[in-house]
Write a structure and sequence with these properties.
Elements lengths: L2 E5 L5 E5 L9 E5 L4 E5 L5 E5 L6 H4 L4 E8 L2 E13 L2
């Protein structure tokens, strides 16, 4: 699965992915140092994504929620807004 975390100029976060998650995301959490990202379900299932956003890490502490969007053929097919948690692992 390809995943990208983006921030707009006004610090709105969007997590884009290209395959179904297999569950409805309940929240997204990341390590405060930019080393890891996890998409979490209400029942504890998770998808771990490696660190790839160290260049925006300092701005992530200001984020409260994230728009999670699945793309197919460069078009959005489903999405939802969930809480975003930045923490130290």
């Amino acid at each position: 699965m390809n995943v990208a975390l983006t921030l707009s100029r006004d610090n709105k976060a969007m997590l884009v992915h290209d395959q179904p998650l297999g569950f409805a995301p309940s929240w997204v959490e990341c390590s405060a140092d930019g080393e890891g990202l996890r998409i979490m379900s209400e029942d504890g299932r998770e998808i771990r994504v490696g660190g790839f956003y160290k260049d925006i890490c300092d701005k992530l502490n200001e984020i409260c929620d994230v728009l999670v969007v699945r793309m197919e053929k460069n078009e959005p097919v489903e999405g939802c807004r969930v809480p975003f948690i930045s923490q130290r692992y």
